[in-house]
Amino acid sequence: MKTEGRNSAIINAHQICCFFMERIRRMHTIKRIGKRIYDAGGCDATDDYGQGYDDAITLALNILLEETGYTIEEILDYEED
Fold it and tell me: pLDDT of the chain along its 81 residues, tens only?
């Protein structure tokens, strides 16, 4: 009986570890995506097409930030290892 309880605890610890590792991977993925979106924009164009492009990039980045709860500072501070 003791072995069965111990095995259950090991399995639960493993599941918890896997859960947090997946969360960390997702966090890095979201920040990497946000950084790539940010880097794709910012041309500060004056013509209509360029301004529309900047506006679309800003909108996409704002949607990502709103849906994930990250701030622009967290995205800009992200650096891949």
Answer: 455 666 677 778 888 999 999 999 999 999 999 999 999 886 666 788 888 888 899 999 999 999 999 999 999 998 865
Cα–Cα nearest to 34, from 81, 77, 1:
77
Neighbours of 61 (CB within 10 A): 19
| Rg of the chain taking only CA atoms, in angstroms | 20
pTM: 0.72
